[in-house]
């Protein structure tokens, strides 16, 4: 089981909380899996979904670390590149880049404001390419509920990303 699933679990954890904590979470996930293997029921989903369910539960306990990571991503997105010569003309692309940075900030803030359960849904779907049945098995919800929640979350993030900042809305 470890050989089959450790790589994808580690990748999932590393994207969520960074590589150092990912190693700890991977070890903890398999520790819990070994201790609770008697409760594994293949009829509810495969090993992958079961392990992602355990891992997702462990991630809930690390919410503060994840929130700090999302804030750091927002700071990095706002930081201007350092390899641009300030004497060169940059033209109209500056406004586009600034708009993109603002949109990225809004989406990252929206992600940070989501509940840990909602972020887990988005990350399992987007990063791990799990379908609604697999996600449902991992988190213990019907696939239809997962699909509905994902639609709502994606619509919410799309609206957030395309929304104008408060000061620009006043100009319209």
Description:
The chain is mostly helical and 172 residues long. The protein has helices spanning 2-17, 19-35, 47-60, 63-78, 93-113, 116-126, 132-139, 143-162, 166-171. It has one domain: Up-down Bundle (Butyryl-CoA Dehydrogenase, subunit A, domain 3). It is globular. The termini are far apart. The model has no long low-confidence stretch (mean pLDDT 81).
Number of individual domains: 1
Shape, principal axes of CA atoms: globular
Q: Give the CATH topology.
A: Butyryl-CoA Dehydrogenase, subunit A, domain 3
Low-confidence stretches: none
Would you tell me the overall average pLDDT?
81
**Tally of helical segments:** 9
N-to-C SSE string, H for helix and E for strand: HHHHHHHHH
Query: If you compute it from the alpha carbons, what radius of gyration comes out, rounded to the nearest whole angstrom?
Result: 19 Å
| N-C termini distance | 57 Å
Major beta sheet summary: none
The amount of helix comes to over 70%
Q: Any guess at the CATH architecture?
A: Up-down Bundle
Specify the structural class.
mainly alpha
By oligomeric state, this entry counts as: single chain
Number of strands: 0
